[in-house]
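Give me the fold.
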Amino acid sequence: MSAARPGRDRRAVLLPPSPGASRVGGRTRGTAVVGGGIAGIAAATALAERGVKVTLYEREPYLGGRVGGWSTELHDGTTATMSRGFHAFFRQYYNLRSLLRRTDARLDRLTGLPDYPLRHRDGLHDSFRRVPRTPPMSALGFVALSPSFRWRDLVGMNPVAALPLLDVRVPDVYAELDGVSADDFLRSLRFPAAARHLAFEVFSRSFFADPRELSAAEMVLMFHIYFLGSSEGLLFDVPTDPFPTALWDPLAEHLSRHGADLRLSTPVENVTPTADGTFTVATDREELPYDTVVLALDSGGLRSLVGRSPRLGDAAWRERIARLRTAPPFLVSRLWLDRPVAPDRPGFLGTAGYGSLDNVSVLERWEQEAASWAARTGGSVVELHGYALPENADPDTEARDLIARLHDVYPETRDARILDARHEWRRDCPLFPVGGYADRPGVRTPRQGLVLAGDLVRTDLPVALMERAATSGFLAANALLETWGVRGHPLWTVPDGSRGRVLGALASVRHRGNGRAVTAPSRPKAPGLTGG
């Protein structure tokens, strides 16, 4: 991974790796990476590229985890790729994009969407197409251009409550706001209701969580990463082909070329530490020895595996793992319609006020497989997302409701016949609850040679969602490489702290009011140093 600047933001922060040899020397029993999502692929790639013998175990028959894809047969006998739904590859995802550059140096298999429109049922629309990318003009431009912010409404806002948005530092933001819910924080701002729904709850619901349960620190960090802390902007890229074709099949070939053994459809039963400091990894077929292990699982998978591995870690660490929570269920409905949606419909639309419908995607606007199907049939491939659904909700009822809300948002779909439909009801995203940060496990664990990776893992860096998964995977690999005296991989993040003189001055007022010393923005910690 090159240390060349990864994007347009000249203040992006480089985290150089520990120095060391270029490759692992001598014979080892290798590393087992358990989990083939983004975090597991990043860890396996980082290790294999340094000469480590890697075996990657994945219970599903495909790579990518929550960004994976699989084949499904449509009513006409043709094959399509189904997935768990739309994902936005923001330009701030420096480490994820570095992983993808292993097989796509110019990221030609990603394409930018021209806008990220948001629509409220009351008729208000917001857009990021013309919003400046560099703070503080990004915030000022958004307010000036947004119909959700009427100047007479702004008079009633609480500017003091908004000051934490201006100077986000990790992990300080958790000390200040982790004990407050995202919903309570948003209400304290006294934003106009429509602006609150469109400008902020979009970030909150990106965690698949009800804002009343989500830590305000996570939402404020998101706002910093995508808006006030970075000049990469809020527009994003999407893959031009289904996830397996565009992303994971090429990386699987890359891993194989570096000697990695990819074992799909192979769930791990347990991991057992041995007396000589190594580990035994057991599946339903065999038990194999490894020097080190990376656990790159979702919250439920990690809880379950640690529960089946009674000698793994100490009691306090095991209790922390057992307390990990999972976000409420969500639904992805993909519809193959017999006629097209209106030609001016965007590729992606965020929604508010339409019941449980959070966004609508028109896949043929960017994905070649969907575009080919639409061109052949004259139809459209439309995807609907509903996040943070009630625990006891009925999936069939929720699917019908999403379709009904689609008819409200895009009325021309009322007359369309649904030729095929696939509904994915899932509940496996991590929940970042109020007050939960201190209890979240880090990359390192009490057991030498055992590390964690995934978007659930605490990194003490300004990263979130897919970028947190990729970053934690690299951090996990770097932590192991460091023990062998091997050079790790450099990482990049958006900067901590305020941007620009105006925001810095306001932040200084806040610091003095809180009794905090006014200092320059803190630098991120060195990779891999987060405790277990």
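The first strand starts at residue 13 and ends at 15.
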